[in-house]
């Protein structure tokens, strides 16, 4: 039986948070930090690193299941995310050791969908 | 297909784990405090689940060099999908080696898809993680509607 997990709310990112993630991860793709480059690639503004969202999603799993160990984790990046948008992480335990999650913005638009398996 | 790229061995440092954990807003003390990590059953400070990204980008033969060798412009690449399969924990002090393999490449509409499988091993040759990424190269520069991002 599926079991809904507690929603986790994330505050909006500031542009400097994306600069910070670029430095920490080493992903200096400028479409995440430089408005002019983002616009030259057809985007209206810099987009949040998908891997930053995946990092949040992994953190949500650890928050839901602090005693369990993650074995498999798969995500699809389904929409672009931007600074200034608040997000919610929703999850569902589908079996005893597997679940699904998604990250949405305030309007309900999906940014990431994923599935995970634990020990 | 089957093109391989070997990253340079990367030493996982506690300070880098801390910086990465802060950038993600993580609060679990195991990422910041060795004692908390040991109390939780780890050999030392563990790396968070998506830390292999740091290895990809910060080793001395990194993802940008892979892009150059494979002829890709990083600013044209969006990240479509990512999966991880976890083995042994990655612990600060470990030296991680990784091999990336181009497992598939195909075109759909105005996009080219690359599937890359990266196997990460520690100093004992144990697999710590297998990452599978789908990257999307935007061949039409000004198409703003893209189902996926980097």
Automatic annotation (TrEMBL), chain A:
Pfam assignment, any one: MaoC_dehydratas
InterPro entries: HotDog_dom_sf, MaoC-like_dom
Name of the protein described by the UniProt record: 3-hydroxyacyl-ACP dehydratase
Organism encoding this protein: Planococcus maitriensis
Domain MaoC-like: start-end pairs: 4-100
TrEMBL record, chain B:
CDD domains: R_hydratase_like
FAS1-like dehydratase domain: residues covered: 1-129
SUPFAM superfamilies to which the protein is assigned, alphabetical: Thioesterase/thiol ester dehydrase-isomerase
Protein name, UniProt field: MaoC family dehydratase
Annotated organism of origin: Planococcus maitriensis
């Amino acid at each position: 039986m599926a079991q809904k997990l507690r929603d986790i709310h994330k505050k909006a990112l500031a542009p400097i948070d994306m600069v910070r993630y670029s430095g920490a991860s080493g992903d200096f793709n400028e479409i995440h930090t430089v408005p002019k480059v983002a616009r030259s690639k057809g985007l209206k503004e810099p987009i949040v690193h998908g891997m930053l969202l995946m990092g949040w999603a992994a953190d949500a799993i650890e928050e839901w299941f602090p005693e369990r160990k993650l074995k498999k984790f798969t995500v699809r990046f389904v929409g672009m995310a931007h600074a200034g948008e608040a997000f919610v992480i929703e999850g569902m335990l589908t079996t005893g050791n597997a679940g699904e999650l998604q990250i949405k913005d305030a309007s309900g638009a999906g940014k990431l969908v994923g599935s995970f398996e634990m020990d | 297909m089957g093109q391989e790229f070997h990253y340079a061995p990367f030493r996982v440092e506690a300070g880098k784990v801390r910086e990465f954990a802060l950038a993600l807003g993580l609060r679990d003390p195991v990422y910041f405090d060795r004692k908390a990590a040991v109390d939780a059953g780890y050999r030392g400070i563990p790396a968070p689940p998506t830390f292999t990204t740091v290895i990809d980008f910060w080793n001395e033969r990194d993802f940008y060099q892979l892009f150059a060798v494979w002829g890709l412009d990083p600013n044209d690449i969006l990240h479509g999908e990512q999966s991880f399969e976890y083995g042994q924990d990655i612990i600060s002090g470990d030296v991680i080696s990784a091999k990336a393999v181009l497992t598939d490449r195909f075109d759909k509409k105005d996009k080219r898809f690359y599937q890359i499988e990266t196997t990460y091993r520690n100093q004992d040759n144990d697999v710590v993680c297998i990452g599978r990424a789908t990257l999307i190269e935007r061949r039409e520069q000004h198409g703003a509607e893209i189902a996926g991002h980097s």
